């Protein structure tokens, strides 16, 4: 059975095309391929194969390498009639942290650009079997990007002690009521009614998190974000990737990273500022236009930062 067509709308597409297209890249890594929206647009700004003045001297033919941890993405697009069938696109199942291995597989040592769109895709939110959306309350609380590896969130909650659960919810979700939530999660386990579904966790969050008078955020939002980050090791992967990216981005190459919450944005900002091999091109993060937010409300919290690899030697 074929995978359904993507419903995801890529965020800040014009800005990504502008900042990446300026350097006429020959090799691009789309580290969060998702629905392929950014890749589809970036094909138009790839250097021509006969353009000797463009791209990295380490590359050969023009290519976009699409990385994604979600097997459903690869199954959907790695078909002759889909974008993955384009000779200029190679798809790989795995985290963007594995970009150097994907580059090596394609016979090249460096990329000219790395694009990261760190948010959840609409396809994942709408997948009833993943539990990413707290509106689908009968779904199993999985929260993994790759459901074929690792531990689903409901198991993580069952095997993790109360203090560590509370710390994760506070650190990764910035949730003030993390201890109260963790206490109720563990109490259910002691009563032999462990949290298993989205609805189980939503019920706890509704009881533990008072409704804000000045904000309409759902009481489960921060907790779901925190558990998703913990289960998928998202922030550590982002930190490790940005710490080593200058080793495999060619001089003059760029990283364009879109984040959706302060934890991700802080990691990107600090990585660019603290490594002298990066020149920050966006002194302040770029935000989506009002028109884009109106057309795609999920873009409203997006922040784009761009940095360019300097000519300094790798350390």
Overall CATH architecture of the largest domain: 3-Layer(aba) Sandwich
- Range of strand content: 5-15%
Shape descriptor reads globular
How many structural domains can be distinguished in the coordinates? 2
Mean pLDDT: 89
How big is the Rg? 20 Å
Count of β-strands: 7
CATH superfamily of the largest domain: Vaccinia Virus protein VP39
> Could you list the spans in which at least 5 consecutive residues all have pLDDT below 50?
52-59
Q: Walk across the major sheet and give the strand order.
A: 3-2-1-4-5-7-6
Global structural class: alpha/beta
Percent range for helical residues?
Answer: 25-40%
Distance between the terminal alpha carbons, to the nearest Å?
48 Å
Main sheet makeup: 7 strands, mixed
What is the tally of helical segments?
13
What is the CATH first-level class name of the largest domain?
Answer: Alpha Beta
Tell me the series of helices and strands, N- to C-terminal. HEHEHEHEHHHHHHHEHEHE
How is the CATH topology of the largest domain named? Rossmann fold
